[in-house]
Amino acid sequence: MPAKIKYGIEYFRTEVNHFRSVAMRRAIIKDGPDVIAVYFFMQAEILIIGHSYQFDDEELLVFFISDGCNCPEDRVTKALEILLKYGLFDKESYDNGYLTSVEIQKKYYKVTKRRKVRYLEEGWLLSNEEMDLIDKKNTVETVNNLHQDESNLTEQVQNGSQFVNESKQSKSHSQSQTERKEGLKIQDKGVLPPVIIPSHFDRSFKSFILQGALNINDPITEMLNEFFTELRDNYTNRQVRDATMHTLNQLHKNGWVDGDNEPIKDKYRYIKSAMINNLNIIINNENDAEDDRPFIEKLVDNLPGLKKNRTEITS
Question: How far apart are CA 166 and CA 170, in angstroms?
Answer without folding.
Answer: 9
